[in-house]
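Schema walk-through. Below, the input block comes first and the output block second. Nothing else is stored per chain. Lengths vary across the set, and this one has 738 residues.
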Amino acid sequence: MLLQNLIGNITLKAWMLLLPCLTRITAAPKDGYYQIYSNTKPPLREENSTSRWYFKVLGTTDSSISVSCTLVSYRTEMNDRLFNTTDPVTCRPISSTDLEMLSLLNRSFLYTLKKEGVADQQTVGRIFEERIASWQIEEGIGKMMMQNAKSFLAAEMRALFQLLSKDNKGLLTDSVFRYNITDINNQPVQEVTITRLDAKEVNIPPLNEEVETAIVTASHFSHVLYEAPLFDSAKVGNYFKRYDPVYGSANFYRLIKLDLLAANIMANMDRYDSLLLVTADSILAPYPQHLFNKAQKVKNISVDSAYQTIRYLSKDRHNFQSWVQQSFSQEFLHHITPEEIRVKLKENGVTGKKADEFLNDAINSGIISKILIEKLAHDKDTTIRYEVYPAYLWVQAMKYSSNTDSVVYIAGELEKVSDSKVYGNPHRYGLLLYKQLLASGNAREAAHLLDNQIAGMERRVNDSADHDRYAEQNILSYAYKLKSDAVKATDPRAAMTYLSKAAGYSPGSQKEKVYTSFYDRTFLDSKESYRPEFAEALIRQGNTKDGLVVLSEQLNADPSFIGDLQQAFVRNFPQKDFYRFFNEGVAQSWKSAPDFSLKSPDGTTFFKLEDYRGKWLLIDFWGTWCGPCREEMPKINEFVKKNENRKDLAFLSIACRDTKENVIRYLADNNYHVPVSMSDNTVERKFEVPYYPSKFLISPAGTILPIAFGLDWQKIVEQFIALRPKKIESKMEKGENN
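--- output ---
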């Protein structure tokens, strides 16, 4: 909610430009309750926040106003997460702003507003300092809070308190007042609405201070229990001993305990499950990860319990979809006998009573799931029914697999919903039915179904507004592989055409690789990419050149494929130079890197793309506010130190959505020596940065290759910069042998 926490492209100067537009207000009161509503827009982030305050003017001069401020309540929604101080169940901090507001909650503090400039709010700073110490807040977050304290509420206060003349030094009397905050490009990024409230509207019971402490110290913001990257199990045990007798039955505490038990789930599985089962679905609803797990657990107990939990889970469509398509549907994927289950358990060291419990759960889950899917597929709630129905048809087809007419009828029913975007993953189940029809000797019906599935998927893939189009594209790739296999024996040329389409629809970039496709591949027993298979088929036909082009395209989608590409080249062209092939063919096919000109945080150094021509450049987009970025920084620092004297490789980090003060302090405090520049708020859009951290490798010729998060970026970079002309490699080898 606080404007000073708009990181990156908002400055106090930008706020001040708006203030002279305020209307003169007279006969203003000296105190009152106010609500400040803020709506932050992309590209910063999606966030809505509401705070309620009591303000009282204590004194005025010609140049300043002294105000007593008390935060009564604070609520914010960001990234589908809710933080609300009026309800301990949802009072779980998810940002430094939440910690700041929780620190000030129900604590009066003095605020000084100057007519010119911004006063250092020392009272706010002292409160933050006390909370940082008592809650043992993580150092980087604590420093950010102290920095924010200096200009806390700056823009809101200037809007709220009028300093247009010495005769007007009271509070805003208009019932509603609105204004916009813009970035340096004059684009609106935040809307703020200030509303005067009646005292009766602010009758909110205060949050107990001990409850605040219990909540914050159990979070990853505090060092009381958490030492990155893990919670200390001994400290967690002591935490439970302290708070179990006090808050053991309180709903907010049960949620905290579930989080802490889940942090070390392998050691706490039984305790976690037991607590999960006695926690009401309505309490778990704001935290879908626990509701998801409960749906899994109660599925082994009873149909009614599972159904009730699933109804709550369905209110969060994304997590309900994940549960159905990634978890529940797997109940019907493999048919394993109890004896096979016991053998698997024994292989994993699970025997005796524990094995009996697992086996009993597995048997119950299988029985209940069959009843449950029938119930869900005919539910009155369309969200539930539509998501489950395609999977239900697949299950029915397996149930009546010996009756060809029934399976064909079911396939027809599935075709009716395959073009609809509201049904859950119909094309996954369509391909499963195709394979079932084919295996039972119904080739004609199978071919008809496959053609219809392909047509439907092509329509969705070509629809740029379809947010599932990349998942559909991954399934479509496999559909064409199935079509290729079906005609391989009778029409090899057509088979190659279909295989080329399978390769063409294989993900060609990190953006086209979607998480849900992993589960589709599990069900369909398919591959992520058919480019290598198509390339090998081309090479077998003597079309080696085109085969290598296809393999090169695979490299664009998966940079770690560089080794495989080099091996394929050497195997097929032992006399030719892979280095030349790569530089003149592969690297030139990449997009040109966007131009940039950036400054270091202290403004003394300029970084331009043209300065790196002729060498490899690894760019890392990050921010001090980004947890994964901070966790990776020691590795980044070591990488820079190891390669700082290389003439063929450079590194540049670009701090985004950040302040130069935060970046300078963070690097100094941690003794990191990394080349760093500040984003100009356009460079990340030019590079199409999808998340943080994000890395891009720029070739000596100035072309760009994204490296997805999770890949071994150090190994990938080493493989690329190790490429050498064939003649140079021969001389080096000769020198080593001598």
